[in-house]
Each structure stands twice: as structure tokens, then as C-alpha cells.
Amino acid sequence: MSCSNCANGSKGTPRGCKSNGTCGSDSCNKLTVFDWLENMQLAEDQEECPFVEVRFKNSRKEFFRIPKDLKLQAGNLVITKADSGYDLGRITLAGPLVGIQMKRKKIERKSEKIGVLLRIANTQEIDRWHELRNKEAEVQKEARKLAIALHLNMKISDVEYQADGKKATFYYTAEQRVDFRQLIKDMAQAFSIRIEMRQIGLRLEASRLGGIGSCGRELCCSTWLTDFRSVSSGAARYQQLSLNPQKLSGQCGRLKCCLNYELDAYRSEIKKFPRPEVKLHTEKGVGIFQKMDIFKGVLWYAYKNEWITWHKLSVAAVHEIIKKNKENKPVASLEDFVELSTSNEPILLDRGVGQDSLSRFDQPNKKNSFRRRKKKNNRNGPKKKV
User: Fold this and answer.
1) Looking at 3-7, 289-293, 302-306, which range is the least confident one?
2) pLDDT of 75-96, one tens digit each?
3) Predicted confidence (pLDDT) per residue in 7-40, tens digit
4) N or C: which end of the chain has fewer CB within 10 A?
5) How many domains does the chain have?
6) What residues contact residue 170 under an 8 Å CB cut-off, 6+ apart?
7) pLDDT at residue 363 in the model
8) Across all residues in the chain, what is the average pLDDT?
9) Do 140 and 183 belong together in one domain?
10) In the sheet that 167-173 helps form, which strands lie side by side, from edge to edge?
């Protein structure tokens, strides 16, 4: 995920390119697109695509029309038209693949969403842009202090300066509606710029900030996930997971997005199982559902008022009992259909690393072994000469 500029510096400390996803190799951003048509020549009757894809801070991307007599390629820093000024971004995609991206995002060629690209950025504009990027962290701290002083229930998570320094966008999260009119006045007076407040969701905030999940990997939303679908507690019930909010919630405080990854497979597989509310009627008693194992295809039932003893049944056996109940055929007991565990099942971790002794690599103590042999000979008594 990192470029060559993000290698280690002196004394092994991470150096970092400090571009925060806008480095030259364009490999530090989750929305990086590999241009597989870059080295291919256009056909004779095919025209060049007059659009380019430009990325700004974090994951914000827009499409722009290329001016006449201006040749651009991926990696160029360009100046784009913005509200009452200009902004600076990096071209992430150029060529025929831009048209495919626009079609995928349902953006027509005559759409108003396509912006105006002015020119290639010069050295002074690039230096000014880097100064503003380094200034954003300090401005964010001061803005948080102003919000706390006004007792506003909101969290300012990120700041994005416009390249000309005339405007700054503050991204915040809040559970309820916030009246930040006085906050805008205080920030405009403190920073002497135009202020724009933009509310984002908690999932989008986690994707912008990044982090490490409970699985030990980077957050999906900050690496590759762009479609934030709603996750309900029913996804955990389908997968037979314990409804523990501490284990099921991610860093954003909402249910983990990964609960939806295997949900369709569980839904299609659970159709083979009988409904949990269906009871098994036998001559010995009524069997009530306790739990199921979708992977092994087994269910556990217990007799009414005998909750301690569970009986393990296969899916086919349960369907057979239900069929006999519908046909009013007698069923003696659940024990007749119990699935017996075979002794040929492989034992996991047998003589593995976790099973061996931790002292197996230690050097044997010769002095102690001599004492043990001596004690053993004394117990057996002196050897008789023949």
C-alpha cells in the first residue's frame, strides 16, 4: 500500500512522504486505479477522451474537461476552478479508461458535475499548497477548542484547505442537529478565511482517519471499501453470533461492515434447515430447538423440562421427524435419530507447536540427570553378582 517514499528514515523510524495519499506513485490511496489501457494505442477511428480524473485530499475525486492545446497525463498537478477561487489536485487517471469510469458512476459527458480545469500548477502554487496542508492539523485543534468553549456536541474530525487559502472545509460528526452559527463567526475571525461546515457519517469518518481493526488488518473502509451499506443486527443472528456490542461494533461505533460479507452464503445455506420454532413430537416427549451448526449441518434439541441433556441430530433426521409428525406416524424418541460421533475424526494440533513443551529446546542438565540415575539405582538396591 505504500510507495518508495514511505520507507524508513534514520534509526529505523518511519520517514513517510507526508503526502497523506497524494504521493507521486499514487499507491497510498484506497481509490487508486490501475490504468491497464495506458500502453495501448488508440484505433484510427477512435478519438482521445477529453476528460481526466482528478483527486483532491483523501478520497474526493472529480472529473474535469481537458482544455484545448494542453497535454496531460497521470501524476500531473493541475489547477481547477472552485468557488470564488481555485483548487489544486492530482490527475489520477487519463485516457480511454476515464470514459469507462464516468459510465460506471453514471456521469454523462454534458453533465454539470464535470468541472473546469484551468492549467498545470506552477512551483509557487505547489509550495503554497504544501504550506496549507501542513497548517491543517493546527487549525483543527484550534477549531475543536472553539467548539468546546461553545459547549457544542460535535466532533471536528478533519480540515481541508482550498489551494488558494481563501476557504477551508471542516468535516464534523454529530448525533443531533447542531447550531454552529456562532462557531462559524468565531472561526472566521480566528482564521480569516471563508468557512464551510460539512457533516459526515461515523463510517465515513473512520474511513478518512483509518486504523487497525480487531482482525489485525487495516480497516476495510480506509483501504478498499467504498460502498457503506447498512448493517443490521439480523446479520449477526443469521451467523449464530453472540449479540455482544463490544465485539460486533467497529471503531466507528456501528456494527462491523464485515458482517455483510458472508451473509448471503449463510442465508442460502440456512434455507436447508428447519425453522427453530418447529417442535419435534415424540412418544418420550416434545423436542425443542436449542442451537444449530451451519457448517457441520447439525442441530441440537432437548426435551421439554429436560434442558440439561441435548441431543445432536442431523438436518436429514430432523426433516424426517417433521415429516412423520405431519403424517401422524409415531416417533419413539430423539435418541433413535441421534448422530453418533465417529472415532476416525482427525485431531487438530496433534503434536503441533502448541502441544509441545516449551523447554524442548533447552540444553539438558547433566548434573541433575546423574543424580536421578543415582537415586533410581538406590531404590532398586545393589546389583547381585552372579
Assistant:
1) 3-7
2) 899 999 988 889 999 998 888 8
3) 555 555 555 555 444 444 444 566 677 777 777 7
4) C
5) 4
6) 140, 143, 156, 158, 159, 187, 195, 196, 197, 198
7) 61
8) 83
9) yes
10) 155-161, 167-173, 194-199
Are 49 and 115 in a shared domain?
Answer: yes
Based on the fold, state whether residues 111 and 133 are members of the same structural domain.
no
CB–CB of 197/242 below 8 Å? no
Domain range for 57: 45-121
Total number of residues shown for the chain: 386
d(CA 172, CA 197): 7
Residues 136 and 196 in one domain: yes
Here the cell at position 306 is 429436560
- Residues 286, 238 share a domain: no
Q: Do both 52 and 102 map to the same domain?
A: yes
Residue 152 shares a structural domain with residue 115? no
39 phi and psi, to 5 degrees?
A: -90, 10
Between the alpha carbon of residue 339 and those of residues 135, 300, 314, 352, the distances in Å are: 68, 10, 6, 29
Please say whether the beta carbons of 75 and 38 come within 8 A. no
Point out the domain boundary residue: 200, 231, 250: 200
Eight-state DSSP code of residue 43: P
